[in-house]
Amino acid sequence: GLAATAVLTGAMGLAGTMAAFLVIRFLAGLASAFVLVFMSSIVFGHLAAAGRNDLQALHFGGVGLGIAASSALMAILVTGHAGWEAGWFWSAAISACAFPLVALLLGSTATANGADGREPALPKDRSLMKIIVAYGLFGFGYIVTATFLIAIVRQGGGGRVFEAVVWMVTGLAGIPSVWLWQKIAARIGLYAAYAFGCLAEVVGVTASVAMVGHIGPLLGGFLLGGTFIAITALGLQTGRQLVPRAPRRVLALMTASFGLGQIIGPIVAGLLAQATGDFFLASIVAAAVLLVSGAITWSAAPKSP
């Protein structure tokens, strides 16, 4: 999956038609889904075996680090007046350099539940169904701002360097976010932390289009980075908690629901933006969907006897 991601990223710089872009991004989405499911399973398995589940935040912190690194790369390329292809080529080169390091450090592929072989079927559980639906809604809600934040900055008159700065803020906020929200979850519970994370992201999504000047996009980027990676992790943890004996199955199903939301979200937001001329209504719809996701997850929490 990681190797395919590097190759497909480079291929984007060689493509020149919308059809080619769509095919390459579809394949890249499949590759990233494999990476998320299997790498999380491997890492969580090693951490569980070592009794160090507290280090899960480091695994997801890599997402924020990657976002910050990509924004720095784009700032350099923009100031150097590089062509659009350069961003894809350099990203592919960095991914290709990182691939052998991951391959060497991977070690044994311990499973998340410490047992090899076929996992049991997922139970027909009401709470699990709620979590899967809520996770898909979260994919819809967060991806609107994640996809169009730079377009929102550009529409507001921000320059290319400021676009990179906003994305840099998003990535830097994402690095410690899982650690922070894990601390919150330890105090108020996993499901409540997920719900409050959605609420915090609602503030950011709304701020990105409701506050004028640089403050809105910066606050939107900060709260997006400070929540979406953590909520992604918290959601997967709720699934693993509900179905501890079939972690790969539940991770795969939740990732599929998440991906479906990520597909539908930009389409709906794009149509709304085209109809209204800006991203205000699209962002408000995304904020409302995030609220619903948080509310469903809250309702799925196990009830105290």
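(ticket continues) Second input and output from the same batch:
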Amino acid sequence: MAREMLRQGGRSARIQTAVHAATRDLLETIDRSAITVPMIAEKAGVPPSTIYRRWGDIGDLLADVALAHMRPIADPTDTGSMHSDIETFIIEYAEEMSSGVGREMLSDILGSSSGGAAQQCCHYTIHHLETLRDRAEQRGEAVFDIAAAMDKIVAPIVYHIMFRDREVTPDYCRALISDFLGKTAGR
């Protein structure tokens, strides 16, 4: 995650945009293990010291680029019911994160030395779950505990994606959701 607060617009934003674009371009054409800060700096038209000063190291820069890609641009789909809202969101989340690009982004975020990118990524997911919970409450439906949803639905999905020990299918996601909502309703 960027070490300094970035002002909206201005030189700082232009540098971040150029460095992120250069990094994404290189990631599309070169194996990530071969990418270096000087390569990114040259492509972005900035001195390497700018990248080191702002991001610290290649791991934190890759995490920041991944986090920017993961930043939500819209609320989760409103399907009309809490169960189908959660199911739609979780299945889309699992599909995106289990793709090659999604796995690389998760690896970059979890590999960041600062830990800030992982916290921000987690915050994005929590925000979406809060949106789903608030919708359910507005409809008069039973609500769910966000922390429990993270533990019982999101955490197993991310674990299996990262360790590749089982395929995270839509049916697997539905089973997690049904188990979670069944226990939530039984309280």
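Agent notes: The chain is about 70% helix and 0% strand. The mean pLDDT is 91. Closing as not reproducible unless the customer responds.
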